[in-house]
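Lecture 7, part B: from sequences to assemblies.

Below are the input chains for today's worked example.
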Amino acid sequence: MRTFRYERASTTSGAVALLAEAPHGAFLGGGTNLVDLMKLDVARPDLLVDVRRLTSDRVEELSNGGVRIGAGVSNSQLAADPLIRRRYPMLSQALLSGASGQLRNLATAAGNLLQRTRCPYFQDVTTPCNKREPGTGCSAIEGHHRDLAILGTSPECVATHPSDLAVALVALDAVVRTEGPDGERVIPMTELHRLPGPEPQRDTVLRHGDLITAIDLPPLAFAACSYFRKIRDRASYAFALVTVAAAIDVVDGVVRDVRIAFGGVAHKPWRAIKAEELLRGGPAGEDQFRRAAEAELADARPLAGNAFKVPLARNTMVRTLLELLEGPR
Amino acid sequence: MSTITPRAMGQALDRLDGADKVRGLARYAFEHPVDHPAYLFPVQSTVAVGRITGIDCSQASGQPGVLAVLTYHNAPRLSTEDGELRVLQSDEVAFRGQIVAAVIAETSEIARHAASLVRVDYEGRTHNVDLRAEVPGHREHLRVPNEVLPLFPMDTAEGDVDAAMASAAVRVDEVYSTPWYTHNALEPHTTIACWTEEGCTLHLSTQGVTGIQAGVAQAFRLDPSQVRVISPHVGGAFGSKVYPRADVVLAAMAARSVPGRPVKFALTRQQTFSLTGYRPPTIQRVRLGAGSDGRLTAIDHRSIEQTSKLKEFAEHSTRATPSMYAAPNRGTQQWVAELDVPTPTIMRAPGEASGMFALESAMDELAIACGLDPIELRIRNEPDTHPQFHLPFSSRNLITCLREGARRFGWEQRDPTPRARREGGWLIGTGVAAATYPVLRLPGSKATIRADANGRYAVLIAAVDIGTGTRTALTQVAADALQADVEQIDLRLGDTAYPPAAEEGASAGITSWGAAICAAADQLRQRLATEHGGTVPADGLEITADTPENEYLKQYAMHSFGAQFAEVRVHEETGEIRVPRQLGVFACGRIVNPKTARSQLLGGMAWGLSMSLHEQSVLDLRFGHVVNHDLAQYHISSNADIGAVEVHWIEEDDPYVNPMGTKGVGEIGIVGVAAAIANAVYHATGIRIRDLPITLDKLLPG
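Predicted structure of the full complex, as structure tokens:
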């Protein structure tokens, strides 16, 4: 392991200032992913600025009826929060479907969004990887890519984003609040993560030194009946093959509003805009759900080893929406 | 051979070391306190085959805290023909991940970082790591391996299989495959090595201190008495810690390079995937011919698997087949392909676990083809004597296990039609398979018993407890052998300071060590009676005895049997697989400790589920290494995957196997599980999966 400096600031602006002067530094949240990557020599920060106790660790109700999640709230705490469980159950379900109890105790809400892909080649410095070392090539495209992306890939990268939480947040139109060297920003969750394009080394639109301070959830009444479904190779403690986060508002058999996002299929949480548009205002039923899923997945460009994700994503979306129609879980 | 009367044996004693383990007081190898240790970290090759053309250690050596960098240029010369042990002896690279250099430093972090700074240049050659490519038309690369156990020859043949197949009313002829499995013991391979003028001391996580002692002594040209190996507790091994591997030799080499400093070496999880062995992948063809009544006329089982070019290791996947069913025409054949891969090794039920997946899947396919219940099919083919050895079985209760399991599992109500049961989007099926494992006795054990005048007995043997409960069970054996209470026995294991012992493996621990202890106890009681009037003299009495030969081996075939049942649920739309229920009934002779035996069998069944659905080392054919080399990516069943697991056994009284009447419980729990689950998946879905693991993409509707 490389030697690094460890600092703890007393304010968020102090933390941002510390990192602004360290181009190879990083913020440390729960460290459940970053520390692993440092051991593997994948991440090589020379400075860690510990922000775990710096940002808020509270979940608060906002005056507009929404909810603010402090960046330092642990995944366990967030999953168990009564407000979250009542108003946005899919968010709690997403968190509980990830990692293990111990990891959830340590991992923070903001850190969860910034974890890196679990593509095996990204995590192995002895193999080429454009995300880790731009220009070296992608080992996954012609290698082991069973778990990797089917949507929005580029010739440079087929990695997926591993967060389950982010998928639920994208479906809920959440925004992240950041503080950085250039001041404060508010970034919609749908825009936080990027598609790989020719620059797969960049996971998000954040700039160096940007610190996520909070995540805001807008009010969304029908999200009280929402569902997060995770399909994986074992029943627990596995990253997603496919996830679906969904909420649907149906009145008299007609879809008044709907939110759908996929995880495990792309370099970013995949908001199913096309499917939502097709469904909004139309009848709610299995055929419509299936057509909407097929429309969303029409752009899928799977590789030989992950083509199964296309029917899997379709079937999972249809089943998730059907189960929501059947009533609150 | 006389049998001993069970008094302590059969009692569900708590583990003698259980409380210490729970409280963290039981010391594992790496935790042994040593003064001023140095730490080791290896550099592994990044090509699969080739030659090292240059090594630049200057940057690594210059790091503060680095004590030495070992390469083939400066490493001590070793004296061993074992290719896996010849660490840093030449510029040749035989597999990706082979150790090509190593750093010794003041801390493990410094060693690890410095290792990343060692620059190695290679002249790579084209490698071949693909077992599948060996199958069609490349038979020249395949050969029959050397025998592992003389009792079970690699190739067997009786009658005329081809003719019988041609005239059979019902035929099954299918190819099955199993993947590369990696052990992943919770405690990785660890060593603390220390040299003094007298020789070398190794604190080590191993299944056999005596074998390690011999291997290390030979490699360093020492007398075995100059090598002491200590392994009091082991956190899982499963076969991967039977033979000495490169890590042990490297630790000993490193300690010799920094005189006076003990060297600590713990492999990372990633390193264990290339350095500690694995269960080789197999490609198996099974042919079954039968009359329309299901009576077998032909059984043929052929298996191809891989070994390395450094050393031959052949898992005997076809070994169980000749012991299972009656048929006049039978054959088994075993081939290995030598590839540019690390050497495979023993893994729980080596041979039976993979081989019985193929055979027992094929039996299910035959039952369906004949329109017979799979249990009835097995009953119809039950042999009177061992089909290959033509000897009576010392005891054989396969049918009893199947019937008892059927009764407990509720098999009778089963509708054999596939896709007949459905509940809330889940298809439900049940499956059954037979299990077997031979009763083996490994040579080379001695036990010493020291009786003192206060009625206590010290029992010394260099056996090891790899977490199975050996320490407890062997204490129960010793108590009964000495006609004493468990409290009178002070059993000492895990140290070459005690008499030599065979490794913990082949479900032969209790048989091999227990027989030696019984022999020593016998002699002790005789000596006491004839020379001391039945009382222990004031200065005590000590007896050492070997594991005797089993005189009944030529008269009886000796095997454990079992029946595995499983219920599976497959989601109609996602292909997700759940196993809510497993039930096993076993006939393993006398059960020494019902508590630890149950844990062994249950652990085997859980691993069988893991083998069926989750585990698979994914090889990248271009680089030649396992890419999913950590526990996040190499899936082992989680607690949430294991449903209700019922473990039962049949009381057996077998006076021929050994004085305890035991047959071993370590391996058989895993045998047959994969077939039972694959058979249940077929029953649930109508889809026959012949290639493990059974993953949801194979069952996903299009």
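Note for the exam: The first helix of chain B runs from residue 18 to 22. Keep this in mind when comparing with the next example.
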